[in-house]
Specification:
metal ion binding; metal-binding; globular; Globin-like; heme binding; 61% helix; Hemoglobin_trunc
Length: 119
């Protein structure tokens, strides 16, 4: 049996680091930084980490809202969505994640597109 994406990414500790880097990149990304200007960074990093851990086959830690509910009314554009994907890719690369795993994570994130853009 092959290892889950969660395991191949390095488990909770590694995914927590990747998630924190994603949020940090979002905060510095001029395309989307304004979306996070009033965020509690600590809480945001925790939520992103729990979502990422759960979504990759790790322990079911995420207790937040579904993606459509979280993004409803935010009027997120396709350009902003791609900026988020770019930040995720940058964080994965920064943390030495392999090409296959990078592609799998981006596929998962992209699959949520219709629940995030212009909902």
């Amino acid at each position: 049996m092959s290892a889950s994406l969660y395991e191949r990414l390095g488990g909770s500790e590694a995914i927590t680091q990747i998630s924190g880097d994603i949020v940090d990149f979002h905060m510095d990304n001029q395309s989307i930084a304004n979306r996070f200007a009033n965020s509690d960074t600590r809480k945001l990093k925790k939520a992103v980490s729990e979502f990422f851990i759960t979504g990759t086959g790790g322990p079911n830690l995420y207790t937040g809202k579904d993606m459509r509910s979280v993004h409803r009314g935010m009027n997120i554009s396709a350009i902003e969505f791609v900026a988020v994907l770019d930040d995720a890719l940058q964080a994965l690369q920064k943390n030495g994640v392999g090409q296959r795993e990078q592609e799998e994570v981006l596929f998962i994130l992209y699959s949520m597109r219709s629940e995030i853009i212009l909902v």
